[in-house]
Amino acid sequence: MRLDAAIAWGSRALSESSDSAKLDAELLLAELLQCSRAQLIAHAERFLTGAELAHYQHFIARRKQGEPLAYLTGHKEFWSLDLRVTPATLIPRPETELLVERTLALFPNDERRRSIADLGTGSGAVALALSQERPAWEVYATDQSTAALAVAQQNAVHLGLERVRFFQGSWCAALPALLFDAIVSNPPYLSESEWQGCQKELHFEPVSALVSGEEGLHDLSELVHGAKKYLRPGAYLLLEHGWEQGPALRKLLREEAYQEVCSYHDLAGRERVTSGRWAI
Known about the structure:
Elements: H1 3-14, H2 21-33, H3 37-42, H4 50-64, H5 69-73, E1 75-78, E2 81-84, H6 97-106, E3 115-119, H7 125-133, E4 138-143, H8 146-159, E5 165-168, E6 180-185, H9 192-196, H10 218-226, E7 231-240, H11 246-255, E8 259-265, E9 271-278
Parallel strand pairs: 3-4, 3-6, 4-5, 6-7
Antiparallel strand pairs: 1-2, 7-9, 8-9
Helix pairs in contact: 1-2, 1-4, 2-4, 6-7
């Protein structure tokens, strides 16, 4: 089968299960052949070998069942970084870039040696983006999952961002005995009922990185309370959350004596990141 015919076949096979069937088909074939989409078009007349065709058909079958494209290709772009991802890690999403943007905005043009912690780092997306933008910062990244942490460490090595330090454990308990200028996190924030109603793709991702109790607030609450003893006076806590959770999270922060509490909107106009300043 020629490459152009393979793409057409893959597009048809995925047409009912994906909103981006042709793009998915092209990306999966490009991953298989280790080439760009432009090269697929330039060499459209090339024939797949029997082994390549069988592998491609297997890719398409898995995608048709709802398996995320990022898990099939093994990587995902975030903040212009090409990150390795596996089923042990949450797939980085564009809205999480807001967490990076707001953290950088707190310390513009900063060359001081600040200490920043990214809790529940997963693939290392946020920690590595911060380290790339602020090379002078000491970035600490934690995750309870040893498998996820291994992926994050591999990404750090691959990207040459080896100043990031990694620690295994749950939230703040994994941190060394330091005071930080900012603690950031994209924790689980779906309720159990929300997760049950999510699209099929989300069910391939680690439940522990998505679901946080009946109302989705368990881990957010734990972070708001636990971060206080790790923040230096005047330091910040920044948390990603569900688009309807802003009011509840602002209330939690104020009850725990954080000041300058505010929420920021993502590109869809929804509250996505909330921050508070520890001034005690």
